[in-house]
Amino acid sequence: MDTLSAAWFLLIGMDADLLAIVSLSLKVSGFAVLYALILGAPVGAALAIWSFPGRQVLIVVFNSLMALPPVVVGLSVYLLLSRSGPLGDLGILFTPKAMIVAQTVLIFPIIVALTREAVKPVFREYRGLLVSLNASPFLVLRTVLWDARFGVVTALLAGFGRAVAEVGAVLIVGGNINGLTRVMTTTIALETSKGNLELAMALGVVLIVLALVMNALIYSISRIGLRFQEVRE
Amino acid sequence: MKILLALLFMASAAGAQQRSMVLASTTSTQNSGLLDVILPQFEASTGIHVFVVAVGTGQALRIAQNGDADAILVHHRASEDQFVADGFGIDRLDIMFNDFVIIGPKSDPAGISEALSAGQAFANISSSQSRFVSRGDNSGTHLRELEIWREAGLSPEYDGYLEVGSGMGTALNLASGLGAYILADRGTWLSFQNRGDLALLFEGGAEMINPYGYVRVDPARFAHIKSAEAEALGLWLTSSAGQAAIAGFRIMGVQLFCASGLAPPDQQNDQQGTCAAGALQR
After folding, report:
1. With a cut of 0.85, is the ipTM above it?
2. Min CA distance, A38 vs chain B (Å)?
3. How far is residue B76's CA from residue B141's CA, in Å, rounded to a whole number?
4. Are strands B49-55 and B20-26 parallel, antiparallel or unpaired?
5. What are phi and psi for residue B88, nearest 5 degrees?
6. pLDDT digits (tens, 9 = 90+) for B175-197
7. So what's the pLDDT on residue B267?
8. How large is the average pLDDT for residues B53-60?
9. By the CB < 8 Å criterion, does A31 face chain B?
């Protein structure tokens, strides 16, 4: 009960610090899911459409990469972006950029795998038509991705959920710096380690409420889209 | 791809063109709230903003070795000296100290509150097979714990000895849940909120002193090191203003860190209580 009332007060009293933490969480995970979508959706669709040597291997690899532990991603991206690493000259370690990179890597396989699942049945339906039209690969991709868009939105939500909830990767590459790279999950971990269990739990409730709002929003948008589509058909 | 990169960089172009540096420090300085209080004072007098990455001493040293921090504020003298000897750091400075304390269940089944030294307390804990939570993370506290076992001629390999591999606060949470003994720094213990059945059972003695050192990363090793800023922080921390800020930091009226410049640690070893109202003698 204490936790819930504390969460309620955090939510209504949303002070500047908490607001900054919440908005950084949304910004980092939002950009990560956007980049993962731009990069991953075409890959996922391509895996559903074309057969080429090594395709089965790639599918299995991407499916397994969905289980990548965030700390491993964090560590790999740390080694990459460290001043002693290959991309050290960018100087973006311990900044939100590094966190976006890490989360993009983390959810890329989810977008690829779920997009492939969404595109598969759509392509089966259109295959004959697209082949007979001798459509260009770009047109094929565009058509099937557009038609599978509601499935792709599910991929997007799954990716966003994983990104906004993970702590291992952002902690390592972001460093949980106060006012710069501190997000919801790293704050929760920090408050837990301080023994402020009620505050930590209250922040957890805030995170869940935000996820709920995000999901409800996207769900209703896609419902409206679906209805619009049905009307047109 | 170019557009993507541009977007990526726009996404988080944090406004500040302010002077800044990265300090790798330990969870004990961060969780206690010390850095949140003293660093704004440093920023007010120099205009330099310090980004703190709080990790264990082992990881802090590693981050600095990779050139990912401009300076470190840690608490394991031997590792600091090694860091300088290996050519990564320069100008090691004594900043402050507090002490370690042994925390355990109020009932004190191993009877360590009667012990005469930390070594004897550890001996009582292991001979009574009581649970002991070890940080197990190469932090300054973990390294000191291992030194105490070694100096007491003991091996901590018994059934109740649990290496948890996490930070001070997380380890305290575990000890609280398990009713185990644990070596903690006084600062984190004082600010720790989830004590449950735990109590401070043993304190005092030279082996419990916990000195913090500041080392800046050698700018000759990495071109990007914010050398002037790191030097300024070292100067400020050892200045009378910095030392007063450290000594003035209180949690619930209790001083957590003794400023090294105000009373040299050697002197402290001999006569505890020099850091008067403070951490070592309460």
Report:
1. no
2. 9
3. 8
4. parallel
5. -90, -35
6. 998 999 999 998 889 888 888 89
7. 45
8. 90
9. yes
Domains of chain A: 21-185 (1.10.3720.10)
Nearest Cα residue in chain A from B70: A83
Contacts of A74 in chain B (CB under 8 A): none
Yes or no: say if B54 and B26 are a contact pair by the CB < 8 Å rule.
Answer: yes
Q: How many CB pairs under 8 A join A and B?
A: 88
As a whole number, mean pLDDT of residues A186-208 equals 87
Pull the structure tokens for residue A94.
């311990």
Which pTM does this prediction carry?
Answer: 0.83
The token pair that represents B243 in the structure block: 């030392």
For the range A206-211, what are the long-range contacts, defined as Cβ-Cβ under 8 Å and sequence gap of 24 or more? A206/A7, A206/A10, A206/A11, A206/A18, A206/A22, A207/A25, A207/A164, A207/A165, A209/A7, A209/A11, A210/A22, A210/A25, A210/A26, A210/A164, A210/A184, A211/A161, A211/A164, A211/A165
**Closest CA of chain A from B182, distance in Å:** 15
Domains of chain B, CATH where assigned = 20-98+209-270 (3.40.190.10), 100-208 (3.40.190.10)
Chain B interface, best mutation among A194, A196, A199, by max B CB count within 10 A: A194
Q: In this structure, how many other beta carbons lie within 10 angstroms of the beta carbon of residue A68?
A: 18
User: Cβ–Cβ of A193/B31 closer than 8 Å?
Assistant: yes
- Please report the pLDDT score of residue B11 as a whole number: 45
Touching check for A197 and chain B: CB below 8 Å?
Answer: yes
Confidence (pLDDT) at A220? 84
| Helix B57-65 vs helix B140-151: crossing angle, to nearest 10 | 120
Distance CA A132, CA A51 (A): 18
Kindly identify which residue of chain B lies nearest to residue A85, measuring between CA atoms. Answer: B66
Q: What is the residue-averaged pLDDT of chain A?
A: 89
User: Poorest-confidence range of B9-13, B81-85, B88-92?
Assistant: B9-13
B67 touches chain A (CB under 8 A): yes
A104 vs B280: which has the higher pLDDT: A104
Whole-number percent of chain B with pLDDT over 70: 87
Nearest-CA residue of chain B relative to A38?
Answer: B4
Q: Which of B42, B78, B88 is nearest to B232 (CA)?
A: B42
Specify the pLDDT at position B275: 61
**Measured distance between the N- and C-terminal CA atoms of chain B, rounded to whole angstroms:** 62
Which of A28, A85, A195 is closest, CB to CB, to B194? A195
